[in-house]
Amino acid sequence: MAIPEDPLLVDADLPKDDPINHPAHYTFGAIEVIDAIEAWDLGFHLGNVVKYVARAGRKGERLSDLRKASWYLQREIKRLEQEVRPSCN
Questions:
Q1: Taking Cα atoms as reference points, which of 73, 58, 65, 2 lies closest to residue 26?
Q2: What single DSSP character describes residue 26?
Q3: Residue 14: its pLDDT value, please?
Q4: Distance, CA of 42 to CA of 71 (rounded, Å)
Q5: Which of 18, 29, 54, 67 has the highest CB neighbour number within 10 Å of its CB?
Q6: Would you write out the chain's pLDDT as a tens digit for each of its 89 residues?
Q7: Which three-class secondary structure state does DSSP give residue 18?
Q8: Residue 59: left (phi > 0), alpha (psi -120 to 50), or beta?
C-alpha cells in the first residue's frame, strides 16, 4: 500500500523563491511556517513568535527578529494574565 504524499511537505509546482506567496525565509524546511501556524491554530501573537523565530538570521538581523518574537510573546503573556485576572471596573 502506497503512502500518500503530504501536501504540506511536498509541493513541486511551487517556484523555489516566490517572494509574495512563498518567501524563501519562510520555506526553508520541510514545512512552510504559515502552514505550521495554521495547523497548530496559534493565533496572531504566537503565530508571530513562530514566524520571527523561524526566520531569524534568514531575513535581516537575527537579533532583531528574536526581539520581535519576544515582544509578541510578552504581549500574549500579558493577554493571558488579563484573562486570568480581569481588571476591576
A1: 58
A2: G
A3: 46
A4: 16
A5: 54
A6: 555 555 555 455 544 567 666 666 555 567 888 999 999 999 999 999 999 999 998 888 999 999 999 999 999 999 999 998 876 65
A7: strand
A8: beta
- The number of beta carbons lying within 10 Å of the beta carbon of residue 3 is 5
CA distances (Å), origin 7, targets 13, 18, 64: 11, 18, 32
What are the cell numbers at 3?
503512502
**Which SS3 state, helix, strand or coil, does residue 84 take?**
helix
| Burial classification of residue 23, based on how many CB atoms lie within 10 Å of its CB (0-12 exposed, 13-18 middle, 19 or more buried) | middle
- Report residue 66 as a C-alpha cell: 528574536
